[in-house]
Amino acid sequence: MYRWCTEEVEPKDRFDYWREVRSKGLFGVTAELERERRGDFFGEFSLRQLGGAGLVELKASQYTVERSSSDIADAPGESICVYQQLGSGGWFGGMRGNDFAIANGSFATSHTDLPYRTAPLGAGGFHLRILKIPLGSIPTQDRRMRELAPRTFSDPSLAPLLGACFADLDEAADGSAVDATSLVQALAHLALIERGIVRPGSRRGQAALRTARLSQARRLIAGHLQNPDLAPTMVADQLGVSVRHLHMLFETAAKTFSQTVTDERLKQSRRLMREAPERLIADIATSCGFESLATYYRVFNAAYGMAPGDFRARGSDGH
Length: 319
Known about the structure:
Low-confidence stretches: none
Strand order of the largest sheet: 1-3-4-11-6-9-12
Order of helices and strands: EHEEEEHEEEEEEEHHHHHHHHH
Structural class: alpha+beta
Distance between the termini: 24 Å
Strand content: 15-25%
Number of strands: 12
Radius of gyration: 22 Å
Number of helices: 11
CATH architecture of the domain at 2-223: Sandwich
Mean pLDDT: 92
CATH class of the domain at 2-223: Mainly Beta
CATH superfamily of the domain at 2-223: Jelly Rolls
């Protein structure tokens, strides 16, 4: 992972460095800000290579970004970008079609080599994730992929799937065992489904939806660990699929639904033991959804070859 922040540069030089070295040199865009506001400028970003794509998370105070025809000629990207808006919202304009706003929590997509202008809408500035996926790494090839002017996702059913994939991809960057390549391909094909280039019922469309629904199912499980009644029926209902379809999703994964629930509860209990060493183990077991302390001890010992108390006493790192 590569991280950079303007605090590494003298205040008087921060925006100029951001504009010339980071914006122009790394992202291939032109940054503009009134000279009298440059002394207060702040920006930071991280860049991670995952599954054949680049995942950028960017935070910055207000300024204007333009990807002009000359920028594109100087630094062609030949990629699809999927954006996740995390801040107060943003404005896009200057391209074919109408200007649009992207709200907090929303998603947009575009081809890198089409002109646009963008700026944050709120006083909080920019905060977004950008997944840049080279066209050559996407199995689907269609000339229309190069015509994707910036646009928000209009299908509301895709938003939770996109959010789950981004969340899992973020965890994959931190060492999770989740398959980053499958997540990147799913996000690419969800974008192409939204634009009508890939049919949802096609082989690649179905594969993308399966991957995204599996990610969403895992996120739902993680959010309901405390509920002892967490069961396939509840998760399937929230996904809008049948219980049979839910189990089919987990057939492609390393663990079944039941194994995933148990594994997540055990991992959560380990985190709580590390973070709250004074908390009673019985309380931790209950808060993680185990039906009884005896069940928790049995499952924990089977998974890690020791009792929870021994794990805590050893100050284990979880391995």
